[in-house]
Amino acid sequence: MRWCFGKETTMKQDMIAPLATTDLYDEYGDKLRVCDMQMTNFGGHKAFAGKITTIHCHLDSGLVKATLNTPGRGRVLVVDGEGDLHAALCGDLIAGAAVKNGWTGVVINGAIRDSATIRGLALGIKALGTTPRKSIKDSVGETDVELNFGGITWRPGDTLHADMDGIVLLPEE
User: Fold this and answer.
1) Which of 13, 20, 105, 162 has fewest C-beta within 10 Å?
2) What is the extent of the structural domain holding 88?
3) Is 94 known as a binding-site position?
4) Domain of 83: which CATH number?
5) Is position 104 within any domain?
6) Does 112 reside within a domain?
7) 114 annotated binding-site participant
8) Is residue 140 part of a domain?
9) Which long-range contacts (CB under 8 A, 24 or more apart) does 93-97 make?
10) Quick one: which of 51, 167, 165, 48 has its CA closest to 109?
11) How far is the C-alpha of 38 from the C-alpha of 165, rounded, in Å?
12) Tens of pLDDT along the chain (173 residues)?
């Protein structure tokens, strides 16, 4: 536990140790939700896990920036950018804020930028690809909503595990 301005925080207690997605599939079979999209690993952590928070936005990283600048408490942000690669929904400054604020990972159905710098960050990041283009930052979109991409439904609070073999969501209990 850490003390911050007189308040006790439990960052380590909120962290979920990543498990191999193949082992999880062997255990849960078809009860496990497996993302069918082939995403690329960009962050410094190749395996990560956590409870998810969701954002739906299109070519606008304002909500992504605002969310990753809040306490992450070991969570993973899942962003549905509708698969659009025209503009990046995360760059090195936003990813750096995620690390600083205790997020464990980011999954983006869209593009990122500054990939060389992001590879050195202590953060898991999966995305469809890269682009040098910035997005707008009007904060248009929705937070904490159910998302549907990659052949699965992503619900706020789901437990995600990601590694070099893919991304899975544990079955609901």
Assistant:
1) 13
2) 35-162
3) yes
4) 3.50.30.40
5) yes
6) yes
7) yes
8) yes
9) 94/61, 94/64, 94/65, 94/68, 95/43, 95/68, 95/121, 95/123, 95/125, 96/121, 97/65, 97/68, 97/69
10) 167
11) 9
12) 333 333 333 345 579 999 999 999 999 999 999 999 999 999 999 999 999 999 999 999 999 999 999 999 999 999 999 999 999 999 999 999 999 999 999 999 999 999 999 999 999 999 999 999 999 999 999 999 999 999 999 999 999 999 999 999 998 76
Ranges of beta strands (E only) in the chain are 2-4, 7-9, 33-34, 40-41, 48-56, 76-80, 105-112, 124-130, 142-143, 147-149, 152-154, 159-163, 166-169
Question: Is there a binding annotation on residue 44?
Answer: no
pLDDT confidence of residue 22: 98
The SS3 assignment for 5 reads coil
Instruction: Report how many domains make up the chain.
Output: 1
User: 92 a known binding residue?
Assistant: yes
Look up residue 38 and give its amino acid: Q
Report which secondary-structure segment, H or E, holds 28.
Answer: helix 21-28
How far, in Å, CA of 122 to CA of 110, rounded? 21
